[in-house]
C-alpha cells in the first residue's frame, strides 16, 4: 500500500467514526466501541484520534454534544432542558448544564434567552427584507407549509419525502461561506470532471452550525449522487445520505448570503413549524436543472433540514 492510499484509508476510517458519532449522540459511546468501528485497537485508536482531530475523543464527544444541543435549543426554544440533555447523550440536566456552561460560558437557559432576543431582532420585517428577502426565491407550491408572518410568507418552505441516496464526497474543513464556493470550484469541479460526475445531482452537507462551531472545526462535504456500486477515486469517500421527511427551501444567491438563509430557516421557520430536527445532517441539494451564473457567482439550490414531529 502506498503512503497516499494508506493515508486515505486512515481518513476513511475516521470519517466512518465521526458519522457514527453524529448518528448516535443520544446513546452511550465508549472508546472500545468506536475503536471497533475504526478497525483499530483501543490503545492506538485513542492516540490516532487525538492526533487526527486535534482533540481527545472525550473532548470531541463533549463538544459535539453541547454544540448539537445549542443548535437544537435555538431551533426548538420550548424544549425542556432535561429532554434536550437526554437527546444528546447526557444522563441528567445537571451534567448537561455543567458541560454546556464550560463550553459556552453560560447556562442553556441563558443561551435560549439570548437566541430568542436575536431571533426577535432578526425577525423585524424591515431587517428581514434587507437581509434575506431578496435572496430567497418565492415560488408558491401546492404543498407549501402554512405560515403566519411576513417572513414565513417570503420563506416558502415545502415538506418533502426523500429516498436514501448513495453519494461520493470530498470534505472541506474550515470556515463556511465564500471558502465553500472556492472549494466547489477549485476542488470539486476538477474531481467531478475527471470522474465523469458533472452530470450528476450534487449535495452540500453541512455537519456543523458555523454560528456555534469554531470555523476551523466546521465540516462540509461536496457530494455527487452515484450508484451504490460506484468505486470512489481521487481522495473521495462514499456514504449513504438518509431518506425521510425534510423541510426544503429554494435558495438563490451566492456563498456570502447563504448563511443568513440557513439561519432564518433553522431559527425563524422551524420553531413555529411544529417540527424538530433529528440526527440526520442538513444539506443543500443541487438538482441537474439548478441555475448557476459564473459571472456573479449566483447559484440555486434547495436547503434541506431533516424533520420529525415535535
Task: Give an overview in words.
The protein has 310 residues and is of the alpha+beta class. The protein has eleven helices and ten strands. Helix 1 (3-23) crosses helix 2 (31-38) and helix 5 crosses helix 6 (93-104). The longest helix has 21 residues, at 3-23.
Main beta sheet: strand number and arrangement?
Answer: 10 strands, antiparallel
Helix content: 40-55%
Helix count equals: 11
Structural class of the helices, strands and pairings? alpha+beta
Order of helices and strands: HHHHHHHHHEEHEEEEHEEEE
Cα-atom radius of gyration: 20 Å
Note poorly predicted spans: 125-154
Indicate the mean pLDDT. Answer: 86
- First-residue to last-residue Cα separation: 49 Å
Report the β-strand fraction as a percent range.
15-25%
How many β-strand stretches?
A: 10
Overall 3D form? globular
Main features:
single chain; 11 helices; 21% strand; 310 residues; globular; alpha+beta; ten-stranded antiparallel β-sheet; 44% helix
Secondary structure layout plus pairing:
Elements: H1 3-23, H2 31-38, H3 42-53, H4 57-75, H5 81-87, H6 93-104, H7 108-122, H8 125-133, H9 150-154, E1 157-162, E2 165-173, H10 178-194, E3 202-206, E4 219-226, E5 237-241, E6 244-253, H11 258-269, E7 275-277, E8 282-286, E9 292-293, E10 298-309
Antiparallel strand pairs: 1-6, 2-4, 2-5, 3-4, 3-8, 6-10, 7-10, 8-10, 9-10
Helix pairs in contact: 1-2, 2-3, 4-6, 5-6
Please sum up the structure shown.
It is built from 11 helices and 10 strands. It has about 300 residues and is of the alpha+beta class.
Amino acid at each position: 500500500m502506498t503512503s497516499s492510499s494508506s493515508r486515505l484509508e486512515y481518513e476513511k476510517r475516521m470519517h466512518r467514526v465521526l458519522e457514527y458519532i453524529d448518528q448516535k449522540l443520544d446513546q452511550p459511546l465508549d472508546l472500545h466501541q468506536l475503536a471497533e468501528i475504526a478497525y483499530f485497537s483501543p490503545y492506538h485508536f485513542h492516540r490516532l484520534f487525538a492526533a487526527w482531530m486535534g482533540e481527545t475523543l472525550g473532548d470531541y464527544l463533549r463538544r459535539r454534544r453541547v454544540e448539537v444541543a445549542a443548535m437544537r435549543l435555538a431551533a426548538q426554544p420550548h424544549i425542556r432542558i432535561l429532554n434536550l440533555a437526554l437527546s444528546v447523550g447526557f444522563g441528567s440536566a445537571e451534567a448537561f448544564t455543567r458541560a454546556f456552561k464550560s463550553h459556552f460560558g453560560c447556562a442553556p437557559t441563558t443561551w435560549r434567552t439570548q437566541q430568542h432576543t436575536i431571533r426577535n431582532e432578526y425577525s423585524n420585517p424591515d431587517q428581514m427584507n434587507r437581509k434575506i428577502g431578496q435572496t430567497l426565491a418565492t415560488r408558491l407550491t401546492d404543498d407549501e407549509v402554512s405560515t403566519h408572518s411576513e417572513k414565513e410568507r417570503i420563506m416558502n418552505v415545502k415538506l418533502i419525502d426523500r429516498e436514501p441516496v448513495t453519494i461520493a464526497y470530498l470534505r472541506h474543513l474550515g470556515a463556511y461561506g465564500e471558502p465553500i464556493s472556492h472549494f466547489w470550484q477549485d476542488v470539486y469541479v476538477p474531481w467531478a470532471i475527471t470522474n465523469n460526475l458533472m452530470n450528476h445531482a450534487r449535495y452540500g452537507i453541512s455537519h456543523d452550525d458555523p454560528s456555534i462551531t469554531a470555523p476551523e472545526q466546521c465540516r462540509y462535504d461536496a457530494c455527487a449522487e452515484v450508484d451504490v456500486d460506484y468505486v470512489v477515486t481521487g481522495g473521495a469517500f462514499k456514504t449513504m445520505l438518509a431518506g425521510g421527511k425534510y423541510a426544503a427551501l429554494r435558495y438563490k444567491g451566492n456563498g456570502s448570503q447563504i448563511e443568513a438563509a440557513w439561519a432564518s430557516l433553522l431559527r425563524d421557520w422551524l420553531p413555529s413549524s411544529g417540527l424538530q430536527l433529528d440526527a440526520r445532517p442538513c444539506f443543500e441539494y443541487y438538482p441537474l436543472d439548478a441555475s448557476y451564473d459564473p459571472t456573479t457567482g449566483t447559484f440555486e439550490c434547495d436547503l434541506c433540514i431533516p424533520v420529525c414531529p415535535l
